[in-house]
Amino acid sequence: MEKLSQIREIGIDLAGADMIREPIPIRPGMHYMMGGIKTDVDGLTNVPGVYAAGECACVSVHGGNRLGANSLLDTIVFGERSGNHAAEAARSVDYVEFNVEQTVRNEEKRIQELLDRPANGDRIASVRLGMGESMNRNLAVYRNQEGMEETLGDLEHLQERFKTVPVENKGKIFNTDLIFALELGFMLDCAPPIVVSAIDRKDSRGAQARTDYPNRDDENWMKHLVVGKGETGPEITYAPVSITRVQRQDPEAENTAPFWQDYSLEVEDNATVLDALIKIREDLDGTLSLRCSCRSSICGSCAMRINGHAGLACKTQAVAVLQEGDVIEVEPAGNMPVIKDLVVNFDLFWDKIMEVDPYLKPQGPEPEQEYVVSNDAMLHLSSVTSCIMCGACVSDCTVLEVDPSFLGPAALAKAYRFTADPRDGDDEGVSKERLEALNGPSGMWDCTRCLECVQACPKGVAPMERIMAMRDQAIAAGFHNTNGARHTEAFSESVEQSGTLDELKLALTHGKMPPLIHKKIEGIEHVRRIFEEVDETER
């Protein structure tokens, strides 16, 4: 009991119960209000130039007010942060004339009105006790619509009673009676927003357990309630709650397997996914690793998978992603090995780019003067040259997932940039040598036309369309003896002859018609054994 001596003494002093000898009574405690003044990470409120920090502020770290140990973060870290930011803001604005004397006179008038009230109204303690009893009765942990509306009516009545509450102590030295009156007025201002918010939220979560809405309803109520002062009373608006779920992986950790980690944070309406990730790294978890540089969709460094599809984090609006659900799910780019967290190794990407010889290879004698390219030819290439090498198309390529030898959409789109350039190849701009290499295994014909690369590309390069155009170039250049070319020509002939694809004729003429009687395969007993073992396991 040496470590719990103070707790034991509290039980003896306040409840007359010694926890060594008898059970101690337990009842719900009061932990102030939850919420607080809405600020950003620098302590700035929605009123320009006004800052809040410490117990009163809600920075979405612990919410307004918290246990003593947790308050150190809000008091020390955000106290310093908001102080520094306020000082910088003060230095950046011109000096503003402020009539301090008039403000003091206004406060003196308000206090004097309290002191001048006749001593025939309600007592301060009576009004405060009425407020406390109603709030405790209907807005403790368990609450419902009927009880909360009752308290809202009680508060309106108590606010009217407060208008006649007198301050019996008229003195100017240590006037606690005056302080209690001022505090009561502030509490009666704060109580209605608490009640209105609790009534508005039609679900149970955290410290609110509604008996009439006992379940948590994330579909409708995964959001912050922000209460402001309206013309007729408290007004409620909503702020989104963003849960950013990041796939983490640390090769230096004891367990190097990838895992998911959730971060709850509030994002501004114009924030990007990259803004959210940087906020996590700077304010919540400095161990998170990611690549970013320009933050304006120019460099391509921040390509990653967002809710299952690759894209640039700096170009993807967080609010747009949240319209799909309440979670922003972020993973490293696919089809490339992970270095750490959201950082991947681009060696595979660059190796494939180099495989297509990403430079002009003109044939014939060296020209005596510059080659002037037509404007139309360069306009055609402009969309391809917009590629910023971000790797988003490679990340989502479904062929690369099963065949790492495939050149991939980025390399093939880069190859088209040269096969479509009139300066490449022979005098007619035909790159037969290049097309022959791309016509082989793992080249242009291995694309399955899944359109993932077109969807992922942030610059409109449309790699799949370039691959299709390159196939046309290869056939036009005389490369017919490939599976892809023969497939294309057979389909074209079938449609030309009948207007539609004659699948039966194609199967018959190519010996691919399945037999009328389905025969058992060799080794059927092994397949049957698998089914038997599965059935045995399920019993």
From TrEMBL:
<dbReference type="GO" id="GO:0051538">
    <property type="term" value="F:3 iron, 4 sulfur cluster binding"/>
</dbReference>
<dbReference type="InterPro" id="IPR017896">
    <property type="entry name" value="4Fe4S_Fe-S-bd"/>
</dbReference>
<dbReference type="Pfam" id="PF00890">
    <property type="entry name" value="FAD_binding_2"/>
</dbReference>
<dbReference type="GO" id="GO:0006099">
    <property type="term" value="P:tricarboxylic acid cycle"/>
</dbReference>
<dbReference type="InterPro" id="IPR012675">
    <property type="entry name" value="Beta-grasp_dom_sf"/>
</dbReference>
<dbReference type="Pfam" id="PF13183">
    <property type="entry name" value="Fer4_8"/>
</dbReference>
<dbReference type="GO" id="GO:0051539">
    <property type="term" value="F:4 iron, 4 sulfur cluster binding"/>
</dbReference>
<dbReference type="InterPro" id="IPR003953">
    <property type="entry name" value="FAD-dep_OxRdtase_2_FAD-bd"/>
</dbReference>
<dbReference type="GO" id="GO:0008177">
    <property type="term" value="F:succinate dehydrogenase (quinone) activity"/>
</dbReference>
<dbReference type="GO" id="GO:0046872">
    <property type="term" value="F:metal ion binding"/>
</dbReference>
<dbReference type="InterPro" id="IPR036188">
    <property type="entry name" value="FAD/NAD-bd_sf"/>
</dbReference>
<dbReference type="InterPro" id="IPR027477">
    <property type="entry name" value="Succ_DH/fumarate_Rdtase_cat_sf"/>
</dbReference>
<dbReference type="InterPro" id="IPR017900">
    <property type="entry name" value="4Fe4S_Fe_S_CS"/>
</dbReference>
<dbReference type="GO" id="GO:0051537">
    <property type="term" value="F:2 iron, 2 sulfur cluster binding"/>
</dbReference>
<feature type="domain" description="2Fe-2S ferredoxin-type">
    <location>
        <begin position="244"/>
        <end position="334"/>
    </location>
</feature>
<dbReference type="GO" id="GO:0005886">
    <property type="term" value="C:plasma membrane"/>
</dbReference>
<keyword id="KW-0411">Iron-sulfur</keyword>
<feature type="domain" description="4Fe-4S ferredoxin-type">
    <location>
        <begin position="433"/>
        <end position="467"/>
    </location>
</feature>
<dbReference type="InterPro" id="IPR030664">
    <property type="entry name" value="SdhA/FrdA/AprA"/>
</dbReference>
<dbReference type="GO" id="GO:0009055">
    <property type="term" value="F:electron transfer activity"/>
</dbReference>
<dbReference type="GO" id="GO:0005743">
    <property type="term" value="C:mitochondrial inner membrane"/>
</dbReference>
<keyword id="KW-0479">Metal-binding</keyword>
<keyword id="KW-0560">Oxidoreductase</keyword>
<keyword id="KW-0001">2Fe-2S</keyword>
<keyword id="KW-0408">Iron</keyword>
<dbReference type="InterPro" id="IPR036010">
    <property type="entry name" value="2Fe-2S_ferredoxin-like_sf"/>
</dbReference>
<dbReference type="InterPro" id="IPR015939">
    <property type="entry name" value="Fum_Rdtase/Succ_DH_flav-like_C"/>
</dbReference>
<dbReference type="InterPro" id="IPR009051">
    <property type="entry name" value="Helical_ferredxn"/>
</dbReference>
<keyword id="KW-0285">Flavoprotein</keyword>
<keyword id="KW-0004">4Fe-4S</keyword>
<dbReference type="Pfam" id="PF02910">
    <property type="entry name" value="Succ_DH_flav_C"/>
</dbReference>
<dbReference type="GO" id="GO:0009061">
    <property type="term" value="P:anaerobic respiration"/>
</dbReference>
<dbReference type="InterPro" id="IPR037099">
    <property type="entry name" value="Fum_R/Succ_DH_flav-like_C_sf"/>
</dbReference>
<dbReference type="InterPro" id="IPR004489">
    <property type="entry name" value="Succ_DH/fum_Rdtase_Fe-S"/>
</dbReference>
<dbReference type="InterPro" id="IPR001041">
    <property type="entry name" value="2Fe-2S_ferredoxin-type"/>
</dbReference>
<dbReference type="GO" id="GO:0050660">
    <property type="term" value="F:flavin adenine dinucleotide binding"/>
</dbReference>
<protein>
    <recommendedName>
        <fullName>Succinate dehydrogenase [ubiquinone] iron-sulfur subunit, mitochondrial</fullName>
    </recommendedName>
</protein>
